Amino acid sequence: MSLHLLRHDAYVNGAWVQAKDRRTFDVHNPSTGALVGTVPDMGRNDTRDAIAAAQQAWPAWRALTAKERAVVLRRWFSLIMEHRDALAHLMSCESGKVISESLGEVTYGAAFVEWFAEEGKRAYGDVIPPHTRDRRLVVIRQGIGVVAAISPWNFPLAMITRKVAPALAAGCPVVIKPPAETPCTALALAVLAEAAGVPAGVYNTVTSTRSDEVGRELCENPTVRKLSFTGSTAVGKQLMAQCAPTLTKLSLELGGNAPFIVFDDADLDAAVQGAIQSKFRHNGQTCVCANRLLVQRGVYDAFVARFTDAVASLRSGDVLDPSVQVGPLISLKALGKVQGLVEDAVQHGAAVLHGGRVRDGLFFEPTVLGNVTSDMRVAGEEVFGPVAPVFRFETEAEAIALANNTVYGLAAYFYSRDVGRCWRVAEALEFGMVGINEGLISTELAPFGGVKESGMGREGSRQGLDAYLETKYLCFGGV
């Protein structure tokens, strides 16, 4: 079955609709500047309608058995995979992600739908041995209610499925607010959800550039019982404050400042490959990409030479060309930030070993900075671009201290062939996820999330279902 995926309407209560005030906004390809599509610019009243539709749809959806909901989710998964090429093409056009990575994201995102279709059947409760003979104590788990999901532009498909699939599996209806940069992929997912048989009102997508008023409605409307957000730490804190009056439950996956540590006993070829994968995935525009490369002094020169050669071989250009590995930055603002970080580092003594220049449009050369120190902005800020700053360190203890010297705690990576060191360092790093001799760690099977100011809660894995379930204790007396 082939479906028309590029839509110019939002999806609310089983219907394709425009904003009440008829406002719209255009979506442009960051690689070429071409118009991708025009979608509704919805406001607070539109969002309120979507929440009301979700609330109305909740009783019938939660009344289905977990197996019945799983059948719908499995159909959605199959349709996503059936339309993998079209989804990836659309994603690359609106996000600037190279086509090879977009194809990978569709598969990765679909995997969450497949996983939670089955995991929803395992929302187990408990039977507790009673404290008196005439009572029976039972614990059950039920869907939390209407869920709001605010997703980021850098993973326009997978960050929706990672939130929505467990919510639907738990019996919760959803209202999705995709980013203004990449709403078309979100609407394409809605097309497939509708075709899969997700009932009207259970799945709603509100497109908007009016993030403040839409976000405020999602936070302050007492009908919303749960908010899941992926984005910056600053916005996460703002949403948390707005949710406080109604005590809306929160899952927050926020900013990162991932260290990538190379010890002197590492396999340098493997470390270079892992650093390339981690640092330059989606042109460095991911929350878990390597942000600081920390290399032990004994292998610093050898690693930097091999790494710089590998970076120099990266090909940028047309994101729909399968041989291209690096695309554009998402916006002029993002480009300006990356330029500013490089200029600051150079002013404070860093050496540009490769790249460092703006190319056509929003393209910035893959860049390696040497002799980087902790007093440079690039040491403390999330780069979110194709810039790899390389720091020296002397001892294991120093590496751990440097790695942990950040308010963030999302992902960390290190390379070593010493088994004892692997255990020590993995346990000492203050991050929610650690890659040991591995630069790509994301999978639907494992919990994704951070500590400190990188957020709260976990997505994916069996823990990912917990965020959408409430625990209820039942006490039967007079037995």
Automatic annotation (TrEMBL):
Its EC number is 1.2.1.16. The active site is at 253. It is an enzyme of class 1 (oxidoreductase). It holds the Pfam family Aldedh. Keywords: Oxidoreductase. One of its GO terms (biological process) is gamma-aminobutyric acid catabolic process. GO terms for cellular component: cytosol. Transmembrane segments: none annotated. Residues 16-473 form the Aldehyde dehydrogenase domain. One of its GO terms (molecular function) is succinate-semialdehyde dehydrogenase (NAD+) activity. InterPro entries: Ald_DH/histidinol_DH, Ald_DH_C, Ald_DH_CS_CYS, Ald_DH_CS_GLU, Ald_DH_N, Aldehyde_DH_dom, Aldehyde_DH_Superfamily, Succ_semiAld_DH. NCBIfam families: SSADH. Belongs to the aldehyde dehydrogenase family. This is Succinate-semialdehyde dehydrogenase.
